[in-house]
Amino acid sequence: MPDNTTEYSPDTDNGPLPASSGTGLAWNVADLPVPPDFNFRNALRIIGPGAIVLSMSIGLGEWVLGPLVVTQYGFTMLWVVTVAIILQLALNLEFVRYTVYTGEPVINGFLRLAPHPLFWGGIYILFSLFHAGWPAWAAASAAPLFAGFTGHLPGPGDESVMRWLGIMNLLICAAIVAFGGKVERTLEIVNWLMVLFVFGFLLFVCLLIVPAETWWAGVLGFFGLTPGFEFLLIPENVSWILIGGFAAFAGAGGMANLTVSNYMRDKGIGMGREVGYIPTLIGGRKVVVSPVGSVFPANETNMARWRVWWQYVRCDQVLVWAAGCFVGMFLNCILAAHVVPAGTELSGLAIGAFQAEYLAREGGELLGFVTLVNGFWILFGSQLVTIDMMARINTDLVWSMSGRVRRMAGNDIRRLYYCLLGAFVLWGCIAINLAQPRALVLISSNVAGFILVVSAIHILLLNHKALPRAVRSPWWARGLVGCTALFYGFFFVQNVLELLSR
Among 143, 158, 204, 205, which has the minimal tally of Cβ within 10 Å of its Cβ? Predict the structure, then answer.
């Protein structure tokens, strides 16, 4: 451990290393691990966290909320997607910057800020519960599963069956993350398969039935333009609660953005290799995960390694996550705009499967059935990531804050992770009875937007305080993170005003 009496200035590139940043245990000190040579083959092997979070983005954002917005307000509302993905990309990179430098998930870094680790730990545990504690993905994924077995969409009288299907989906998700060697790797494999299947299906169907003018209108919509090249940013009588949720889930949204850094740690990117990872219950081995990160001197050798690691980070976040979000939203929206009549109000139990009903009318029962499979796979994959996200975020927070918990767990982080996973599944089985899927979706997505406001401000403070100048992001990137707080703060205010007006 470094000497706690050492003075440190984050503005000094090659000065003494920090004893700690704010409150909490002092960082360990080590050289930055040597990255693999940057090439296409190694990039395919190393990238992966972006695919995990992309799976969650495609779920409620692209499959549900995107079509909801486009069918009600038209393509011009896709400018929200353009802004949201650019801003969330900047935010993700700022989160990951802290993790590559320290090895700690960024949410653990927030514990180092005033007033106290227990204060911010409690706040972010509540954030995770309000954002992902609602089993919206499991509830929505029950609709395509129900329709696939019965041959018709769920409606009044099917509530009980839908709830049991949603509970079954939760239990299967929990079982999947128990196997493998590393939880992060298990999620990578499942979600790469999901992403390839979903994108292949959407591209095939869109090429098959969507006319060229709808493709062109969708492209223009990302710039807020009509086919006549007129700007139409905010239609009349817009629902700010719907648009606020859409803005959050157009990317990852809330805690999902934060979890990118947890996956980077477990993947072993940068200093994450020095800290450890969460192993699986079956097939994994005990891994002693350090409750505190390690930092490196910002010398010439380490900075050369940093630049290579950062190339892998950019590939993962820009080429996989951000590009995947744009393509997924585009394909889902042009498909919905073509098959669903404009102005259709999509709600009720069948919110996760309405595309299949309209596609069956367009291309026959076989196409409708494959669409149900696609919809189920999208939403099921999102719930899988959400279950892990809930357990992972809270495990890393508690593991960092409490030495007593670490001792009770015998320094085996799996014991804490799977206890929290079981608690979340139990709560999900209760919460799925409290509201219909659309209400659960809007609650989760709007809470996610508020979390983006708080976490954007937090990461600007944390990285300015903790990172050497050589490792910090350029001024324009920090400016985009500041704009993220303003953008989602605007939607939060509008949501509050709309709720008060009701």
Answer: 204
> Buried b / exposed e across 451-477, counting CB within 10 Å, b at 16+?
bbbbbbebbbebbeebbbeebbbeeeb
Which residues, other chains included, contact 112 with Cβ-Cβ below 8 Å and sequence gap of 6+? 20, 21, 22, 23, 24, 462, 466
Q: How far apart are the first and last CA of the chain?
A: 56
Task: List own/partner pairs for 114-123 with CB under 8 A and 24 or more apart.
Answer: 114/22, 114/23, 116/23, 117/23, 117/24, 117/400, 117/401, 118/401, 121/397, 121/398, 121/400, 121/401, 123/454
Q: How high is the pLDDT of residue 161?
A: 82
Inter-residue contact 298 to 468 (CB < 8 Å): yes
Among 158, 413, 132, which Cα is nearest to 257's? 132
What predicted TM-score, i.e. pTM, was given to this entire model?
A: 0.89
For the chain of 502 residues, list the mean pLDDT of each consecutive stretch of 10: 35 44 75 95 92 82 82 92 96 97 95 90 90 69 75 73 83 88 90 88 90 95 90 82 87 89 95 93 89 93 97 96 94 88 59 67 75 79 86 93 92 94 87 66 78 96 92 96 96 82 71
Instruction: Output the CA angle 167-170-176, nearest 5 degrees.
Output: 145
Closest-CA residue to 261 (of 143, 66, 106): 106
Residue 179 phi, psi (nearest 5): -110, 155
- Specify the 3-state DSSP secondary structure of 281: coil
Residue found by looking up tokens 């949720």 in the block = 245
Interior angle at CA 102, CA 122 and CA 489, nearest 5: 50
Report how far residue 405's alpha carbon sits from residue 195's, in angstroms, rounded to the nearest whole number.
Answer: 37
Judged on CB neighbours under 10 Å (0-12, 13-18, 19+), 71 is buried
Q: Tell me which amino acid residue 21 is.
A: S
pLDDT tens-digit series, residues 219-233 = 999 999 989 888 888
179 SS3 class: strand
Determine the pLDDT at residue 338.
Answer: 86
| 381: its two tokens | 């994959």
Buried b / exposed e along 26-57 (16+ C-beta atoms within 10 A): bbbbbebbebeeeeeebbeebbbbbbbbbbbb
Q: How far apart are CA 101 and CA 382, in angstroms?
A: 29
Identify whether the C-beta of residue 67 lies closer than 8 Å to the C-beta of residue 340. yes
The tokens of 205 are what? 């169907």
